[in-house]
């Protein structure tokens, strides 16, 4: 009786839920079967990393992208693919700086010593004999060799050398933007300004010397040009007291005359050939060194010298020296390389010795035989 009542209740329940007793029994049976089976255990699959070989095959036409060939090996199968990638920006090619001498074609001039200077002149001061000459009449920018005329004008003006001069904003180089160890407001005597301008080519010192001339810088430049004319330097022209302007020009012939004139003053000889000098602008000690390493060499006997460099002029050097007891004037302009003018002076000195002359004679004889 209890089983009959339970059967009636079950029938009513399935009737209300919309499921027939047969469907319920079938679902129950399937559920038992499913639950009795164990779920398969999935094995973890470790994917192998693909082996990739890449190389650049060619660049695109605009040079901003490159086509890269990639070879990938996955599960033993080799796959090839091509991909465009951005190329690393290339460094801009900086063209070589052309000096005024190069633009004039002076670099095409050959000489027996293969000098790096486009212009050279060597004179025996004892008898004014020209020993070596190369493009010596061409007027070129002379850079800080200008300061040799600056010193000559200052010395001949006989101004108070102990007068204290102040570096101002007007002395700051706004043309080449060159650096200086003398800050605006620094104070030095005229004597110290002249010393470091000659020895170390201090631009602000040279500017202060010209600016503190009676009448100012314009009067000083006029005095420089007047002095050049009085020395017979007809290919020479100055526009400032520093040489930073490429409009300061002269020929090697003219500069040889300037060297001889400046050599007459002991103060110019001493200051230009000192290898070291210390100044104290506004009480702060500064050690300056010569711009010409030959002044500290025991192999050289230099009585006067001045170097110079700007891009338009190349490296320049003028000297009064003694070689085998002879007073020799050397002028080198528009030399290529930081120490090339010094190297040219060394080659020239060797050539002027007896051994050098003998070697040159032998070279000429060989060339004559080959010709």
Task: Give a description of the structure.
- This protein has 371 residues and is an alpha+beta fold.
- It has two domains: 54-86, no CATH class; 100-370, DD-peptidase/beta-lactamase superfamily (Beta-lactamase).
- The protein is 35% helix and 24% strand.
- It contains eleven helices and 14 strands.
- The strands form five sheets. The protein has a five-stranded antiparallel sheet, with helices on both faces.
- A hairpin with a 3-residue loop joins strand 12 (302-310) and strand 13 (314-323).
- Helix 5 crosses helix 9 (266-273) and helix 10 packs across helix 11.
- It is globular, with a radius of gyration of 43 Å.
- Residues 1-6, 8-38 and 41-62 have low confidence and may be disordered.
Primary descriptors:
371 residues, alpha+beta, Beta-lactamase, 2 domains, five-stranded antiparallel β-sheet, three-stranded antiparallel β-sheet, 11 helices, 14 strands, 24% strand, globular
